[in-house]
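Mods, move this if it's the wrong board.
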Amino acid sequence: MMNTVLPWVVFCVLFAVLSFSFHYRHPTWAWALVVVAYVMVFLLALYTWRWRRKGDSPEWLTYSVVALLVAITVAALLGDMNFWYNMQPFYDVENLNTYPDVDPARNRGQQRMDAGRVYFVEGSALDPTKSMAFKNIDTYCVAPIVRDTGAKLVTYDFWAVGINCCSAAPGSFRCGQYSNPKARAGLRLMRDDERPFYRLAVQQAEAAYKIAAAHPLFFFWMEDPVEEMRMYRDTGFKYYLLGIFFYFGLNLLAVVGAVVGFSKM
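Not the wrong board. Structure tokens:
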């Protein structure tokens, strides 16, 4: 019974700790719990080794050590991935400001550095004629957000972005909800590892089109940023639930296999 439940419980707890808000608010403590779990398993392994030296055959204790090591390692890997790809972007944007009625022709990037969700004024749209791509394995695509595509702005500080959704040709930007006529909002890009490549794409656009981008901010172009944030959150919870049910079945199969194997020894 212990080998059926304990590894699964450890997996569920650590998977949750590393997936959700505790990891975001207390990252050091989250990883400290993982280290503590490994230390406890090490102590159990030491106890098992000493018992084996006395001539006993603690097969189930040995199994417990292996099962717990696997549970901790898999929970740490999956939890960190779930946090990185789903929950961290949600928490990051949630902690930033929401700005309505932003005019890309008048407002500057410096004025909206803490923007997480931005709703642009009526008439705002993408200007695909000034789009640009920067290729570094993936293709990083940018297009300026403007109010009047026929007028040149003093500075182009608001940019829609996406990966592998454009080519080097001007006008090929196909990222986000570029074809949705109701799209007038942006959800802030929060991935620090992607931002430098988008900056390089903007610099290329500045040189190619003789424009300025003093303080470029990057957004995913869409109609409803709130719904997109819900998708981040819901996806994170979905992967957590799938993970715990899948691991319960996997752990149960491992226990059944161990019972069969030990009965033949």
